[in-house]
Amino acid sequence: MDRRGFVTAGMTAGLAGVSGAGGALGSLLAGVPGWGPGKTLPDGTIRLSSNENPLGLSPRARQAVIDAIPVANRYPSDAAREVEAALARQLGTTPDHVILGAGSTEVLQMAVQAYQSPHAPMVVAEPTFEDVPRYQRPFAYDMVAVPLLPDMSHDLGRMREVAEKDRRPSVVYVCNPNNPTGTVTPSAELNEWIADAPETTMFLVDEAYFEYVDDPRYTSALPLVDAHPNVIVVRTFSKIFGMAGLRLGYGVAHPGTIGRLRDFISSNNANVLASHAALASLGDQDLVARSVAVNDAAKQIAHATLDELSLEYLPTQTNFIMHRIHGDLGSYIGRMRDAGIRVGRPFPPMLGWNRVSFGLPEEMERWAETLRGFRERSWM
Amino acid sequence: MDRRGFVTAGMTAGLAGVSGAGGALGSLLAGVPGWGPGKTLPDGTIRLSSNENPLGLSPRARQAVIDAIPVANRYPSDAAREVEAALARQLGTTPDHVILGAGSTEVLQMAVQAYQSPHAPMVVAEPTFEDVPRYQRPFAYDMVAVPLLPDMSHDLGRMREVAEKDRRPSVVYVCNPNNPTGTVTPSAELNEWIADAPETTMFLVDEAYFEYVDDPRYTSALPLVDAHPNVIVVRTFSKIFGMAGLRLGYGVAHPGTIGRLRDFISSNNANVLASHAALASLGDQDLVARSVAVNDAAKQIAHATLDELSLEYLPTQTNFIMHRIHGDLGSYIGRMRDAGIRVGRPFPPMLGWNRVSFGLPEEMERWAETLRGFRERSWM
């Protein structure tokens, strides 16, 4: 299953009328918690900081959470097995190829731990998602961060030199699309390396934002796992499914590799309410299209605003965008916070840039208005 | 705060009339999912297998889960910080002394990982809770399981010899009360060892069942953590608070020790619905007493039944009991399953015993009746 298969069904309905809060987009937004003309989130703050899905849990997932409350005192293994089976069916694989995590981050942690060895290079992009570098810290890796290329794709050539130097076992983390830049690395280049790599080079391919991508140079690494036990694909329910607070993600790999990851799993890691929400979400064929449609509407506002203010931005294939700011990043983040908006944290070395996550269209308008106000005060 | 402080408030009300389903116990049970005369759990099976709290989530926790659904798409760190603060207040300590886990088991896993070193002895009782032995397996520990003493307390003398031999760093796991035996190890003996032990002996004290204990020889190890950075106390919301499916537990230790554990934490591990349920549960002063009262009623039924059938059992300080069976354990578990009742798994080397978790009084009566039926067929 690729993102297009996921999306096609609901696309026509979802995309009609995305340019305003009326019409199809308005009906998508009708049930969103806290959303409505003039309203913000329940606590009054607009969170554009953490790449969350502003639509919230889908209506079916909310009902599934409520329905599962009577079994919330029971250990969750039965529900977790159902999620593995449902994922296997959707992905066209077997449950033996799937492992759940308390968020995809736990799967990343399992992999970092499972494949550590003394002076094994841990090769990551700079900047990239910080959890993998964090997880390797207490282990015996040699950590190497390779700057992104000028087009903000991973420098796979340089990463390969580092990983395969001295024929050591290594772990290569490829976040694709990359967080915090939102940019993709062409899959053909990655696949070519995987085809040639020794089995001691472990590829940890993070596809957290997979469903948002429409760049034709991008395909999932999922089809590679059977022939390549050294490829682990990591996905999440936090983004397109709007479940970041529920903590559920998964890894897909060769069954032998899954078995090795399982040595490092935390018992009963997938909570029962998240598991039932996931089952309901997987069964909701329009959910991905709805999330993509709302994200596209937010992206249009972001592009228009940044163009208007002549602020450079990176081409995004995700639910966030990285754009230039003028002046000090810490001050910028603080001023946005003072205005009731949380924007992304600093991602060194890109300290002249800010990552802003896509909220609801109305929230994006608030962000745009605030940015224009900063420009008027010459803060930008 | 000790268990008695926790319990006193609601005790008088909670314990009046525990002998039947009428009166005070009846009112405690009125809101339990699936409970009622002649009814079993929603799926028709009685689960007496996993030391779960049959009362389910408390009414306040259920409401808190529902109320938090609108933020289930947001990362949960704010709620997790609130739980740490609430725990610190109740325990009379600071948030720096507290770490959350996706279940207490994740805290056990962090500790096992944080204090591994080549040929460090990992010293546990036999039998005990299996997660710690499981977590040490992929690391470089020397695993040593020390049989319980005849009174089913930990053989601390022998464990000490193993742990402190050759002056290696070691990790000592003390599950107190112990799972699966339900028995306590006198705290004075443990505290004496801790007072004398080198700081390289790490004590991992699992108090998952703490709130159920009324044995005067038992006290929490919590007061020791400030003077002893080598003591980690682990607790859970899975048992007395009925939240096993939600995955939330915690560790309490010296802030320096907490910092070391944090190197091995999985990002955003505490899910937002669990965190809100925990806050509601901690604010419900009668919850512990209610759980204890229903547990005591179940325990009375278990004792009466086992006495009637002359089946030996261990003195329990928990929400389960270990009792003799006659014949093959696998057959026993299978026959119970055929009768619609899940009982505990095998705990080698105690293969002539079964662990049964305390359910609702009516569920215990079903278990008792089934056991009597086994006796009539000479299966017991």
Give me some keywords for this one.
alpha/beta, homodimer, two-stranded parallel sheet, Aspartate Aminotransferase, domain 1, 380 residues, seven-stranded mixed β-sheet
Overview of this protein structure:
Two copies of one chain form a homodimer. Chain A has 380 residues and is α/β, with parallel strands linked by helices. The first copy, chain A, folds into two domains: 3-58 and 286-375, Aspartate Aminotransferase, domain 1, CATH 3.90.1150; 61-282, Aspartate Aminotransferase, domain 2. Chain A is built from 13 helices and eleven strands. In chain A, the strands form three sheets. In chain A, strands 2-8-7-6-5-3-4 form a seven-stranded mixed β-sheet, with helices on both faces. In chain A, strands 1-10 form a two-stranded parallel sheet. A two-stranded antiparallel ribbon of chain A has the order 9-11. In chain A, strand 5 (170-175), helix 8 (187-196) and strand 6 (201-206) form a beta-alpha-beta unit. In chain A, helix 1 (3-15) packs across helix 11, helix 3 (59-68) runs antiparallel to helix 10 (272-282) and helix 11 (287-308) runs parallel beside helix 13. The longest helix of chain A has 22 residues, at 287-308. The first copy, chain A, is globular. Chain A starts with a helix and ends with a helix. The model of chain A is unreliable at 1-21 and 35-39 (pLDDT under 50). Chains A and B meet through helix 3, helix 5 and helix 10 of A and helix 3, helix 5 and helix 10 of B.
